[in-house]
Amino acid sequence: MNEDIIRIQNASDGKLLKSIYISAYRSETIGIIFNNTQECQSLFDILSGKEKFSDGRIYHNETRVTAVQAQTIYKKNCEVIEGAGHLIEHMTIAENICVVGSKKMGFFISSKKCEKKTQLIFDKFNIKLPVKQLIIKLSPYQKIIVALIKAYVSEKTIVLLKDMTSLLNRNEIENVMHLISDLKKQGMSYVFFETYEGILFRYTDTLSIVKNGKTVGIFKSEELSKQKIYSMISENIISEDMHSENMHSENFTSPKEGKVVLEFDRVCTDFLDNVSLKVRQGEIVKLFLDYTSCNHIVDLLKGEIKTNRGNLFLPKGIGFIEENPFSSMLIYEMSVLDNLCLSLSKKVVGIWAKPKYRKSIIATVGNIIGTENIYKPLAQLSLVELQKIVYCKWYLYAPGLVVCMRPFSAVDVQTREVTGQMIRLLASRGIAVLIITSSVSEIELITGDTYFIQNGKLPDENKTSKDNSPKSKV
Q1: 249 and 229 within one domain
Q2: Between the CA of residue 196 and those of 219, 333, 445, what are the distances in Å?
């Protein structure tokens, strides 16, 4: 029989969380999917010991405890790895693990002793990292590996991981999960809080669904069904215009013939090396890039740098949707209609003065945004409604190409579903969509051809594996 480390029944925080059920067993991996990011953060803060439940039955090691006692227990026994983890960047790997992490070793210890202990642990788990390396010089993936080992050395019983996959590629995720599998054999348990549920379907022993502050489903790995879970967590948040068959990912197909609106033809910059790609009218194309490659591609599209060699063909109009578009693209003191008019004022002269233009806007996007929201100030709208407005701006403007920077990052399940449908809506209008991301999680969230560019280069075309194909359908 599994040992129940944490059991939470019908717990609430008096705010967003209303009826939470969680059972965390020793040596188990748990995933939790939310339809609201605020609820996700609230539960994460409680299990990390920052906040506490206000009501409910809480057990630790089969013994019932109060909410105050639980908060103390969680602080002591739960390790938090949010993003790349909480490490001291100007200390070495060994110092972070032995000095900061260990309960058994005092602060004033010899470097050699510390490094030797760390190396023995790394050898045990087949980790190839230099123990003398400063944390600040590590990649996000390497920092997560160190943070996981630190939790093990600190004798934590549960590790909470939040939004880890947004920082890692597919191979790195596989390596992290392999290490977690080894650490589970040592009696450790792991709880994933992820905005992308793909990793949860694949790697967790148990998956919980939290909707509107309540746990509405708990599944074992053999019971997991994406379709069933999506139906449980989805709400009627898409307008009738977006419910058409073609707006769903499994039915949407990008055109393979038509006008090429963007083309890189053996483009070279100070960093990019012979990059070639094409995007056609109405096509969705995804670029998986490292940080420097991303900067050079975006700077080329914005006209901020020029090519050293090769040819670059750009459309007359390019729209950009940044990673956090709400602050850069929307004015909250204005109404929805005024925000839409503002974006069109550069294209249509007199749009503010002529009622016919405003009526045309309402007729075009009223069913998408909701006619009841047209005259509301943005401050009264939900995140889902704001996301629709961001994309409707370019839907109305209709440039040749819209570039979406990490469109699925930092959004909850509801908003992510709307984002995918809005991207397909742009494409159905004949607008080419280029998605730029460094997250393997986002690559898999929408259909379309994918280009992988690492260190400024497309992979060797002779390599045909799914992970590094220069152009593969996902």
Answers
A1: no
A2: 17, 32, 8
